[in-house]
Amino acid sequence: RKAGSRQAHLWTSDGSGGFEVTRAPAERAKALARGTCVVMHLKEDAKEFLDENRLAQIVRAYSDHIPFQIDLVKAGASERRQLNSASAIWARPKGEISAEDYTEFYRHIAGQYDEPALTIHYTAEGRHEYTVLLFVPGMAPFDLFDPARKGRVRLYVRRVFITDEADLLPPWLRFVRGVIDSQDMPLNISREMLQNNPIVASIRKAVTKRVLSELAKCAEKDKAKFEQIWENFGPVLKEGLYEDPERRDTLFEIARFRTTAGEGWRSLADYVADMRPNQTEIYYLTGDNPEQLRNSPQLEGFAARGIEVLLLGDPVDSFWVTTAVGFEGKPFRSITQGQP
Question: Is the pLDDT confidence value at 340 over 80?
Fold first, then answer.
């Protein structure tokens, strides 16, 4: 019933797909001051939804962050129990959110007890409007390399939870946690519709680009922090070098490698800048791990000539290095193919 109106309308449906809207009887209209009253008649096999804890669980899962308070009131009782928080941290201005607030929310959605290594929070406006709050974990989860593991970025539509299986980021960013809240998609969108939804595709492309941009900024501004991120998630990010040729150049810019130049991490830009005169190729050696590779007799000739060699010790390295054209016009070449 609309505020200030005497007339109310009655919407009815048996759940088979159709519905009917009629004018509500006078006694029903009089009983409803304003707003909407929803009366549900449950089947025998749906009585679980009369359980208070089950109702609270559903409300917190799907409507915890909507801007309206949801209360549970028993019939004939005056006591009200609020079920949702009625707030969304990602909808608040960044200036009002402390590092502790971000960490608390990260731990809530990630189910981990570390602190985020990187927080990405922004709102996109234009063709599509959505808010992003993502976290790069401070520690690698134990199942990071499980083939069945998927990303768990939660999709919300106007603060209502939709799914955490929308593949909002590519598999090689599956370690990222957080939420994306769209203002454009319908609330009743199905999982099947999500797979071919152009808005989801647009968001995925833009957010992936933004995550890589934020990682690049971190690498430039805080070398130690980024190297720890790479230590934890570098092998997963390098999957993108093989799976996502479109973003290979961007990934090469942030990729870090162990080399024969020392114990630390080196970028490909570092390698190219320090190439020997007349050197035209980037040399590498693949194997089980960098420490074993350092003792390879195949490195002796390159060391004698002062030529740096990438030590590629992750399983994924043997895949991407055979498909990559090169970096800054310098092709990759295995030292097993002979001396320079």
Answer: no
